[in-house]
Amino acid sequence: MRIAVLADIHGNIRALEAVRADLAKHSPDVVVNLGDHVSGPLDAALTADLLMSENYLHIRGNHDRQVTAPSVDRMGPSDRAARTQLLDRHLSWLSALPPIYSLEGDVLLCHGSPSDDLQYLLEDVIADCVGLASPEKIEQRLGGVRAGLILCGHTHIPRTVRTSRGAWIVNPGSVGVQAYEDDSPPRHYVETGSPHARYAIVDWERSSARIEHIAIQYDWDAASAQALAGQRSDWAHALATGFALKGK
């Protein structure tokens, strides 16, 4: 089974369109989308409409949950910016998405970890950045999950990890934004170091995996300019460079 793995689009329709065009070269059997579809200062409604029209397997990310919350005043700036664009049909679709999904019994889709959409599955926060977590911590965060392949997102960092029991974990990276600052304690930055849209192709045959991480060029300067016009210099810098804007 060939699986195309997308995550963390964050309303960046330019990056999404570039990834969709590249997908045609790989002829996947299924496309999975691991959440955080629209949050950000870009094109939330257009992105939601496009995703709703595709026959992908979508799950809900933490920002999808947050952007559909009843109190707009309590949202962060990225969720609030997206919410102003979204219509009832978008909110209904996002609200109905499952937080996890089991594909053919041996493949688990989650956003953060299987039990928590805010938890980093593969990373630990170290000082003001992130690094690979220990095998013991990764197994602990998996809990009782016995799937042979776990697909996760949330951190925007492309990774492939083999667990001590032989399971594969793949984070495809982010389609939409390649760096961010997280002010939840401890405050930290996540960076991939280039502005390319990311996704992954996994050829999966019952514990045998061929995994390809893909980085796609798109018009990130236009996306950056759009973010800057929306008064989001942090997003503008991250979109254009793949690095977080620090000290601002």
The run of helices and strands is: EHEHEHHHEEEEHEEEEEEEHH
What best-fitting shape do the alpha-carbon axes yield? globular
The amount of beta strand, in percent, is 25-35%
Give me the number of helical elements: 8
Radius of gyration over C-alpha positions, nearest whole angstrom: 17 Å
Task: Describe the overall structure.
- The structure is a single chain.
- With about 250 residues, the chain is of the alpha/beta class.
- The protein has one domain (about 1-240): Purple Acid Phosphatase, chain A, domain 2 (4-Layer Sandwich), CATH 3.60.21.10.
- It contains 8 helices and 14 strands.
- The protein has helices spanning about 15-25, 45-55, 60-65, 75-85, 90-95, 135-140, 220-230, 235-240; strands at about 1-5, 30-35, 55-60, 100-105, 105-110, 125, 130, 150, 160, 170, 180, 190, 195-205, 210-215.
- The strands form 4 sheets. It has a 5-stranded mixed β-sheet with strand order 3-2-1-13-14. Strands 4-5-8-10-9 form a 5-stranded mixed β-sheet, with no helix packed on it. Strands 6-7 form a two-stranded antiparallel sheet.
- A hairpin with a 2-residue loop joins strand 6 (about 125) and strand 7.
- The longest helix has 11 residues, at about 15-25.
- It is globular and about 45 Å long.
- The N and C termini lie far apart (about 45 Å).
- About 45% of the residues are buried.
- The model has no long low-confidence stretch (mean pLDDT about 95).
